[in-house]
């Protein structure tokens, strides 16, 4: 299903997106060496409940997972890049942490992910991974607008990742979003320009470039959820929910901070 949202629902989507951004930035500010992934999950639950919103994850049970997910946020550490199931792991200095959060409020969902390094150590490889996904995300957003096609976004994202020297996995990528978290169209992280669904005002998309340092192959943990790099290399993941407008794309999950090239009003 592909949803086109009317102005009233897009206004509600902005509220949901702002909430997702606020929760992620709060989690980032609270996370230090020694923080447990289960602490992060508890904090997330408390903020969602306080806001009168609902988790898109806790009851999520797709065919590819061992569901329901049962937690409120995805927490990927180092070689874990997608669907990271929170567990009793305490973060160490230099760990690369990816947080992926989807929330629904007033009938509209928003989805975003951030990656950052915990503590004072800043391994160069981790810094480069995060930078590449963030640059690819903003390239994808810049390619989005009325009349553009999904392939234009995919090509923009993939061009940045490939130029940075990373292999690209196409099993998982971005997606449509609206009244539910995952909808059509699928947005791969590489593709050919001029191909695919033509974007229209009111369409919402979650764009999410993710990479692994030296492979494109994933393996799945015994928990049935957590996806890791097949070689044990480090990984990173960045994501925003956007809404196509009459003259471009509005980033709904941008935090109230300056981000290169974009500032929330």
From TrEMBL:
One of its GO terms (molecular function) is metalloaminopeptidase activity. A divalent metal cation 1 binds at residues 100, 111, 239. It is an enzyme of class 3 (hydrolase). Keywords: Aminopeptidase, Hydrolase, Metal-binding, Protease. It catalyses: Release of N-terminal amino acids, preferentially methionine, from peptides and arylamides. Pfam families: Peptidase_M24. PANTHER family: METHIONINE AMINOPEPTIDASE. This is Methionine aminopeptidase.
């Amino acid at each position: 299903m592909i949803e086109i949202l009317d102005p009233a629902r897009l206004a509600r989507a902005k509220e949901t997106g702002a909430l997702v951004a606020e929760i992620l930035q709060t989690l980032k500010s609270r996370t230090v060496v020694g923080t447990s992934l289960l602490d992060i999950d508890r904090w997330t639950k408390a903020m969602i409940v306080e806001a009168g919103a609902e988790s898109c994850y806790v009851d999520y049970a797709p065919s590819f997972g061992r569901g329901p997910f049962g937690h409120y946020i995805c927490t990927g550490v180092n070689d874990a890049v997608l669907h990271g199931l929170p567990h009793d792991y305490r973060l160490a200095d230099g760990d690369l942490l990816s947080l992926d959060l989807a929330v629904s409020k007033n009938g509209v969902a928003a989805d975003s992910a951030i990656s950052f390094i915990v503590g004072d150590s800043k391994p160069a490889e981790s810094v480069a991974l995060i930078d590449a996904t963030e640059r690819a995300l903003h390239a994808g957003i810049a390619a989005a607008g009325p009349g553009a096609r999904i392939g234009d976004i995919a090509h923009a994202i993939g061009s940045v990742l490939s130029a940075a020297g990373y292999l690209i996995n196409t099993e998982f990528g971005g997606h449509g979003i609206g009244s539910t978290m995952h909808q059509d169209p699928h947005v791969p992280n590489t593709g050919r320009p001029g191909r695919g669904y033509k974007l229209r005002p009111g369409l919402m998309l979650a764009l999410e470039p993710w990479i692994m340092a030296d492979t494109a192959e994933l393996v799945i943990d015994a928990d049935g959820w957590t996806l890791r790099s097949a070689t044990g290399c480090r990984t990173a993941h960045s994501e925003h929910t956007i809404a196509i407008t009459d003259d471009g794309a509005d980033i709904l999950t941008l935090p109230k901070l300056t981000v290169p090239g974009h500032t929330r009003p």
